[in-house]
Amino acid sequence: MRWRATDRFALMDEKHVQVIELRGNGGLGVFLRVGDDQRLYRVAPVRDPSQPRFWCLAAFECSSCGIPVSGLAIWAGWWGSAQMELPAILDTIKADADAWLADDQCVKLRQILQQPRPPLQMPLARVTRHDADARRDAALAETAERAS
Asked: pTM here?
């Protein structure tokens, strides 16, 4: 793996990328967080579509708890990697994500990670049947009161 020195210095002005360890994180893959944003990105090996016996790395945008926002990769690189090379590549990312992102193959991913993103939407609160029935009854009583 090679890193260009000029890219290393350019990264100093950018937001820091940190590796996040999630509880129960099994398998190969690394979660990255940019700056103090709660959004995570998972970098994980997937089959290289042009050479199915080889692998590549793909990045997926995830929620703050590590669930992919969509099944679509936002970036892919390290094409044609052998399966036995994957643990070493992922260990390199874990050791120094910023240095790994300085590699020529990661320029597009680094640009994507540094883009401002809208805040994540909060999940909708679950409403129990009891609460829903109580709200409906209150709304009906209010409507009946206004009608009289």
From this structure: 0.69
